[in-house]
Structure formats: C-alpha cells, structure tokens
Amino acid sequence: MPSISPIEDSSPSIHGTISTGCDLCNSTDFSVLLDARDGNSRIVICKNCRLIYASPLLSPEALDSFYDDVFNNDSGCQVRVGGNFPRDKDRKKEEVLAETSGIKTIKRFIEPRGKNVLDLRCRTGALTSILKKEGADVIGVEPFLGNVNYARQVRGLTNIVDLPFSRFHQFPLPQDEYFDMVNILSHHVLAHVLSPRRLLEQILRALKPGGYIFLDEKDVLHPVRHKMQSALDSGPAHQFHFTLHTTARYFHAMGFNLLEYEIDKHRSSDFCHIRIVAQKPKEGRSPSVVSKNTYSDSGPSEKAIRQCLWWLERSWRLRLARMQIKQKFLKVSHKLGF
Ligand SMILES: [Zn+2]
C-alpha cells in the first residue's frame, strides 16, 4: 500500500475562489431565496443553472470551527462523543445500510476484488470493512474522530484518514488515475464541502479511465422528516442544497458519464435521497452500462423551485403534526409489542 497522507494544497483560498460566482457554472447572476436568519446563511439560487447555495460561503476556518464546536448531527462528531465511539444504535444503522444497500449498488457495476477503492466519508467503516472482505484495497476518509476511532480500533481498519470537510478535496492520492472506484454512499458529502466542483475534479483525476463513482445526496425539494420551517434551514452545515437536476448537472459538467441518477426509493432521512452512479470515460469508448435516465439539461425552473419551497414552508405545521403522530404511533406500537 502506498502512502495515504492527504495531498498538499497549493491552490488559492477556496473562500476567495468560490465567493466570486456559482460553483457549478461560474455565473455571478443569482437571486436570493432566503435571507440570513437564526444562524442560517443567506441562501441564493443561480439564475443560470439553478444551483442553490449559501452566499457568502463560510471560510474554511469558520467551517472547521463549526464542525469542531457546534455541529452535533453525526453520531461520531466531536460535540456529541468527544472522540469516543458512537452509540451502538447509530453504528448498527450504518451497518444495515452498508449490507442492504451500499455493497449491492456497487456490485451491480464492479466486483471489488483486487480493486483500489477510495471510501469518502466512510463513517465507522461498515462499508469499508465489507469492501475489504470482498478483496478490495480501501482507503477511508472521515471527518469525525469518534467514527475514525471506531474504524481503526474496533474494525481494525488501518487505512483511515481523518480530514475535515474543508479539506476533503485533499484526500490521499498515491498517483493520478489510481482508484478503480470512489464510494460516497455511506453519507452525503457534496452539501458539506466548500466546492463540490473542486472535489469532483479531484475525483476525476484520481479515477482510472472507466473507474466508477457512487454517490448519495439529499434532495432539498423533497423533505421527509425535516423538522425546520424552511427546507433551506440547515445552519452552516449545508453550504449547498441539491436537487436531482443540479446533482446530475455537476457530473455532466465535469465530464463523467452518468449511468444512473434517480431518487433512491429505499433510502430517506430528513430528505429523500438522490443516488448517482457515474463513470470516468474510457478513452474512445462509450460507457459499458446504458443509463436508465438519459441526462437532459431540463430541470425545474427557478419559478417552480420557488413555488415548491413556498409550499413546503406553508405546509410545515402540517408536516410537523404528521411526524409527531407517526412518532406517537410508533411508541404505542412498540409498547404493545407490535
Ligand atoms: Zn450556476
């Protein structure tokens, strides 16, 4: 196994670069969707590509401080476990997801045996472990120390690198075109980094021709159990808010062949989840799998997105009541032994 140190970053400040325009299309023409309020950033929509993002973006230092001192939504984050292991309940959920969904999605496209794999945001390493048992050589990257500790100390995974989200584009890369596959299925990542474009460019550089990327993302226009008034209220955690259209458009813009992009019917959290499978083009060859959805540049208009967000905000109390009734029903069912 070659060196697994994060790569050095000699490029200019991410903050300075991104605040000048849209990360996806570079347009500087945007309109405001939501003014800054209650600890949430101002959220804007690009008038050219309809990417929804925080403007201005946080600096890398501010983002790091937020995840070190405030963020408590991950079972392994510093604020919640202070470097100790995450709760068994959360880890078991991760293991179920890896067994019932993650590895099955991957094996529809590629056999892990003998492959070099980058597992970005590997959490406690549930899917990393499965890939390793299947015969892959895996490097895991994870920002939260509780998860990293569990992966290393309990699962015995030695190639786990802790990197903050602000430096995810600096994942270990022993050499260009080294990885057969990059997995980002264990938890969504693009919304948390300061430049999805920069991360995807680096992944494209890291993949062998014909190499695969598997990615999960949340669809901001389809909340399921989101408890806030606006679907755009995420605090500083989400610097970007994705739709199926803008997620796919990133891959298209980067030059990937999109093999699948769809709402994952078997997975939801506070939002419905988008699943992307894409491939770095083989030289002179078309992708080996025909896309289920042929990518087109159409997608919801800015007006349609505004109407959807308006309706979600107006129906928030109704959604909240529905969630509370469901939770009460589950509690009663549990007590009665159903
Ligand atoms: Zn744009």
3D architecture notes:
The protein has 10 helices and 11 strands. The protein has about 350 residues and is an alpha/beta fold. The chain has one domain: Vaccinia Virus protein VP39 (Rossmann fold, 3-Layer(aba) Sandwich). The strands form 2 sheets. The protein has a 7-stranded mixed β-sheet. A 4-stranded antiparallel β-sheet has the order 1-2-3-9, with no helix packed on it. Helix 5 links the parallel strand 4 and strand 5. Helix 4 crosses helix 5. It is globular. About 5% of the residues have low confidence. It binds zinc ion. Zinc ion (ZN) binds next to loops. The site of zinc ion has 8 residues, from loops.
User: Biggest sheet: strands side by side, in what order?
Assistant: 6-5-4-7-8-11-10
The helix content, as a percent range, equals 25-40%
CATH-defined superfamily: Vaccinia Virus protein VP39
Number of domains: 1
Largest sheet features: 7 strands, mixed
| CATH topology-level name | Rossmann fold
* Second rung of CATH, namely the architecture: 3-Layer(aba) Sandwich
Derived structural class: alpha/beta
Please count the beta strands (DSSP E, at least 2 residues each).
11
The distinct ligands, each listed once, are: zinc ion
Succession of helices and strands: HEEEHHHEHEHEEHEEHEEHH
Based on the structure, what is the oligomeric state of the protein chains? Answer: single chain
Computed over alpha carbons, the radius of gyration is 20 Å
